[in-house]
Design a protein that fits this description.
Elements lengths: L2 H16 L18 E9 L10 E8 L4 E8 L5 E6 L7 E12 L8 E12 L6 E2 L17 E5 L2 E9 L15 E8 L12 E8 L11 H26 L6 H28 L8 H25 L10 H28 L5 H24 L7 H9 L3 H31 L1
Antiparallel strand pairs: 1-2, 2-3, 3-9, 4-5, 4-10, 5-6, 6-7, 8-9, 10-11
Helix pairs in contact: 2-3, 2-5, 2-6, 2-8, 3-4, 4-5, 6-8
């Protein structure tokens, strides 16, 4: 090669390196040539917005030149604040950054002076409990918070935490890199405690693209699961039990109604069960009493459906007594499932952190109402009591139109009441 070639190469290199308009873009897939940074924010509730309750604001800048993720969290709280990048909408497994501001009083002559210490920790949640620092896990990870990037303040009840971390983490065990796709952004804070082992007082999350800042359109699977299960086990199961116990006088229609409702219950329960299991994928499943009770109910409801089908197939109008299997077993398993469903509804309320007493009171009143009505009807239709035979005889001799009206009132009125109770509970859940 001639000397002139090397001279030209040297001159070209000098021009490129001296040009201020040329930037080196990170090789991260979310960074594109010509876009050296992305700045966005997400407001769980903007502390400065007059249209919100003022909970939390998370803003960030993705610096493709320095390959850093720079975050600022502002929350109306004097305790710890945290954000997480999760594999799902669940707290674990998730990559958590938690920080707090400690207000220290000057020990000198002027005791009114204060100074603040900002602490930010790189943590990871392995269970539904206080997360540990990455460096304290087994095997240990690394602290990905960049030195010198931490700052913050606590002013007028609002805590602000700022920090930076690598855009592409070296800690493949516990830190999540930011893909140019939708990921789960979770947030939480404690309104008054700096102790990171104390439980949050408020939390939330969103499925969002960190580069565009646009939340994804999504269905709240947990809310859907809860409402479907509330409808199935708080309303339809008691109705099906009621029909089987007290409406045989309407003829074979009692069985059609009972079977139809139970088929809906099995399908609805299966849909809600598998949808919530899909959300829990990747995490530790069936770790709470509510989860285990739900698994127990799901297995038994399939067995109960089979027993009902078998009891109908084996039914003999000439029999003199009801057989223990499958008929009586079907009865008692149904009662067990109805009670278990009620219990798990309350456990579900507690699982998602519902604190409004009105939700528990409304549900307790509905449960009490179903058992009071059931007990009253059992007493009035007792064959040992005079008059019960006349009640059944009156219903049996009514026309189809009268029976239809009777069914509509007896079945529709509790349904209407139950739907209203479920609607009130759902509104409280979303608050």
């Amino acid at each position: 090669m001639s000397i002139s070639f090397f001279v030209c190469l040297f001159l070209l290199s000098t021009i490129i390196l001296s040009s201020s308009s040329i930037v080196i873009i990170s090789a991260h897939p979310g960074c594109t040539e010509g876009t050296p940074s992305f700045s966005n924010s997400y407001s769980g509730d903007d502390p400065d917005s007059p249209h919100s309750s003022g909970e939390i604001l998370i803003s960030w800048t993705i610096d493709c030149v320095k390959a850093t993720f720079n975050v600022t969290i502002r929350a109306k709280a004097t305790g710890w604040v945290a954000m997480a990048i999760g594999d799902s909408g669940s707290m674990y497994p998730s990559d958590i950054t938690m920080g707090w501001v400690t207000v220290n009083h000057d020990g000198g002559d002027n005791h009114n002076e204060t100074y603040q210490t900002v602490t930010v920790r790189d943590k990871f949640a392995t269970a539904n409990k206080a997360p540990k620092d990455d460096t304290q896990l087994d095997p240990p990870g690394t602290d990905d918070i960049l030195q010198g990037s931490v700052s913050g303040s606590e002013i007028d009840g609002v805590t602000t935490i700022s920090f930076s971390r690598r855009l592409v983490s070296n800690d493949v065990l516990y830190d999540r890199s930011l893909p140019p796709t939708d990921v789960h952004l979770l947030w939480a804070f404690n309104s008054g405690s700096d102790d990171p082992t104390e439980q949050h007082t408020s939390h939330g999350g969103v499925l969002i693209n960190f580069y565009s800042g646009r939340p994804a359109l999504q269905v709240d699977i947990r809310l859907m699961h809860g409402l479907v299960m509330l409808l199935m086990w708080g309303l339809l199961v008691p109705q099906a039990t009621f029909i089987a116990a007290y409406m045989k006088a309407i003829g074979h229609w009692w069985y059609r109604l009972h079977m139809g409702i139970q088929v809906i219950v099995i399908l609805g329960t299966s849909l809600a069960f598998f949808s919530i299991v899909s959300v829990m994928m990747g995490g530790r499943q069936f770790h709470s009493v509510h989860h285990l009770f739900g698994l127990f109910i799901f297995i038994l409801v399939l067995i109960q459906g089979f027993l009902g089908w078998l009891a109908n197939r084996r039914w003999d109008p000439s029999r003199t007594k009801v057989p223990l299997f499958p008929d009586q077993l079907h009865w008692w398993l149904g009662r067990t499932l109805e009670l278990s469903g009620y219990i798990n509804i309350f456990l579900g309320f507690n699982q998602i952190g519902i604190k409004q007493a009105s939700v528990y009171v409304l549900m307790a009143l509905w449960v009490l109402l179903t058992y009071v009505v059931s007990g009253a009807l059992r007493w009035f239709t007792n064959p040992l009591r005079a008059g019960s035979a006349q009640t059944y005889e009156w219903l049996t001799t009514q026309s189809r139109t009268s029976k239809t009206r009777f069914i509509a009132i007896l079945f529709g009125a509790p349904c209407g009441l139950g739907v209203n109770i479920i609607s009130i509970c759902a509104n409280h859940v979303r608050e």
